[in-house]
Specification:
By secondary structure, the protein is of the alpha/beta class. It has 12 helices and 10 strands. InterPro entries: Tcm_partner (IPR031009).
Length: 392
């Protein structure tokens, strides 16, 4: 498990690794139970390690991922269920690559690994081969660059199209939103590569602030969804540790509704961790400037920004659900869940709470539940129908 104390002054990396750590745990255990003898092929396109604070490199993505996958493998073996774990890592920096090879050789010798010193885009063919290796292969692709180059959409599309796979991409929002509209910039071609063609800017023309930021991320998600023929692609927000603004988004793509639900559950678990990490980072900054002891604990002094963001996205998610219901007729519960979970900071429990509340108000009817079923569930052919006027 990732430890917050290992990420001082890198709190945004802590949140990212927390999501990676806890989601891989859910993924490995679920896939192992659902399909014994599965091979989980983990692919890290910008693996580092770099900016590590621990000698064991435990605060780096290769260590985080392989530790969690190996732990899941041992849990499953005790049941007994076999899960094969493999890892492929690409890193262009020679010094970081030397650390990577040392890490893999010394701490993860029991894992079949391939490591490449070079650019991720030049190793897509090897990544596609690796993703489909082993019995009953399932690939999880982690793309975690330091900028917005090196993973052009057309270049990575063959990897995205591996059928049994999921992807998590670090979309560097703070930098992308700053430069993406500069048509004269030397970086113009890199943005065309990132989004796949030159038409990307039209989608957010006239928008500003968070509306513009949200739309930029939505457009990228839409393009990843189409390129990989995924069923769902959704972002989560990672904030600047010391300021009330976005650092980056983690863009997650899957072909499984259960995967999307698990990702949002992981985000829900990460939210209080992110709140506390931000509060501690801000308190350290205040103390470094003022040098005076503070009476209250760091979380007490935290701003309401995360709560305001959650309220914003809950409003959008509720509106999306209400819009589906207003179309008339019966609506599958799965459709409503998918519509709501496209928005950050929204989980399955939120959707159920809203629907239960609307039903209790008399504006909604639940259909398809068997006599022994009391709650809505996905992939159970549960349906809903609006009746009369329903509050939004």
């Amino acid at each position: 498990m990732v430890q917050r104390e290992d990420y001082r002054r890198r709190e945004q990396a802590f949140v990212k690794h927390y999501v990676l750590d806890h989601y891989l745990q859910k993924l490995a255990l679920k896939i192992g139970h659902y399909r014994p003898n599965t091979t989980l092929n983990y692919i890290d396109g910008f693996s580092g390690p770099w900016q590590h604070a621990t000698e064991e490199l435990r605060d780096t993505s290769p260590h985080v991922a392989l530790t969690q996958l190996c732990a899941a493998r041992e849990v499953l073996r005790a049941r007994p269920i076999e899960l094969h774990v493999r890892g492929m890592f690409v890193e262009r920096d020679r010094e970081a690559f030397a650390l990577l090879e040392r890490l893999l050789g010394e701490q993860f010798a029991s894992v079949e690994c391939e490591a490449y010193n070079g650019e991720f885009e030049t190793h897509i063919r090897e990544a596609c081969r690796f993703a489909e290796g082993g019995p009953q292969p399932f690939a999880f692709v982690f793309i975690d660059p330091t900028g917005w180059t090196g993973y052009g959409l057309k270049a990575i599309t063959p990897l995205l199209r591996v059928r049994r796979s999921e992807v998590l991409i670090n979309f560097m929002t703070k930098d992308i939103t700053r430069f993406v509209d500069d048509g004269e910039s030397v970086a113009l071609q890199s943005f065309i590569d990132l989004f796949g063609d030159a038409t990307y800017r039209e989608a957010w023309r006239g928008l500003a602030d968070l509306d513009r930021e949200d739309r930029i991320v939505e457009v990228y998600c839409e393009r990843v969804l189409k390129a990989g023929d995924f069923a769902y692609c959704a972002p989560t927000v990672v904030l600047n540790p010391r300021h009330d603004r976005t650092c980056y988004h983690l863009v997650y793509a899957t072909r499984s509704l259960h995967g999307l639900i698990a990702f949002r559950d992981t985000e829900r678990e990460a939210t209080p961790e992110q709140r506390e990490a931000r509060a501690e980072a801000k308190q350290r900054e205040r103390l470094s400037k003022g040098g005076q002891f503070e009476m209250f604990a760091a979380p007490v002094m935290e701003t309401s920004y995360m709560a305001e963001l959650q309220q914003r996205y809950h409003g959008k998610a509720r509106a999306a659900v209400a819009s589906k219901l207003s179309e008339g007729g019966e609506v599958d519960f799965d459709v409503l869940v998918a519509a709501a979970l496209q928005y950050p900071m929204t989980c399955l429990g939120d959707v159920k709470d809203w629907l239960n509340g609307w039903r209790d108000e008399g504006g909604l009817e639940f259909l398809g539940l068997s006599p022994g079923e009391r709650a809505l569930a996905v992939q159970k052919k549960h349906r809903l129908r609006a009746r009369g006027r329903r509050s939004s």
